[in-house]
Amino acid sequence: MLTVTEMMASGIAILLFMVLFLGVARGLAKRSERAEQRRIDTEEQAKQAEAERVRAHKEKIALADNGHLPTQLALAKMSEAKQPKEAIYWYEKAAEQDSIEGIEGILRVCRQTNDELISQDKHRYWTNAYDAHHGDEQAVYEQGIALFEGFGIASNMDKGIQLIEHAANKRCVRAQMFLAQWYRSPENPMADKEKAQMWEGMAERINLDGESK
To answer: Could you list the residue ranges that cross the membrane (predicted)?
Structure first.
């Protein structure tokens, strides 16, 4: 039979065990609460980061749509690997501002994919624009004709004539003959017989010299 001392010792031991158990249980509960709070905080931070990313991207889109060239190029470059159509869209926006980086981007993305991302006329136009940038006067003429007629690009007759005249001044006979016909055309509101004769005369002199282009 247990003595009073032994009973007291057993009671104290049981009490200490219960205190220890409750302490451990309380500690585990607090640890679980902290872990749950960290999870909630992490999710909230991720949501805020995603919302900020979406907001910043929308700002970039708006800026690019308003013609900001560096942003257009940045969006295009970011889209090249996984969204080639998106990349082409922004490179074209840049190329339409006579950006050689935009033109090079269009041609590069087209080379990197088997998909027909742009029409053949449009691809030809940007190829000519690239060659024209690097001094090919025949390409300048072809680019001008495409703009004049609206082949592969929105028609811009004024810019087309400017490019054709540039090529003609560089002794491109095809450009000179086109201008001679254009300045005689009844469809030209700026028809000018003297200009027509001037361009025709320049073409004839070059042909006589045997230096036609």
So the answer is: none
User: DSSP H helical segments within the chain, as ranges?
Assistant: 4-65, 69-79, 84-95, 100-112, 120-133, 137-149, 157-169, 173-182, 193-209
DSSP 96: T
Closest to 188 (Cα-Cα) out of 200, 196, 199, 198: 196
Nearest to 164 by CA among 186, 188, 147: 147
In the chain the first and final C-alpha atoms are separated, in Å, by 125
Which token pair is 133? 């940038």
Report pLDDT digits (tens) over 57-113.
888 899 999 999 999 999 999 999 899 999 999 999 999 999 999 999 999 999 998
Structure tokens at 160: 């087309």
For residues 45 and 189, what is the distance between their CA atoms, to the nearest angstrom? 64
pTM score, whole prediction: 0.73
Query: How far is Cα 95 from Cα 120, in angstroms, rounded to an integer?
Result: 17
